[in-house]
Amino acid sequence: DINECLLRNGHGGCQDKCVNTIGGYTCSCENLPNTKLAKDGHSCEPIELCSTNNGGCSNTCHDTIGNWI
Asked: Do the Cβ atoms of 19 and 26 come closer than 8 Å?
């Protein structure tokens, strides 16, 4: 088994966390707050924080990358 996660400073083919498996690897976004794994299985994308309960904001909620204002 080749450890693909050793590439790119331990990220392998992942934007964030890479976990080596037999014959491949899996990615996660657990180290990037308020993000989730994108459909491509490698990239992380922001969670739409404003979509539920207006993000807890009393005024207009605006999603930014991994945060809301």
From this structure: yes
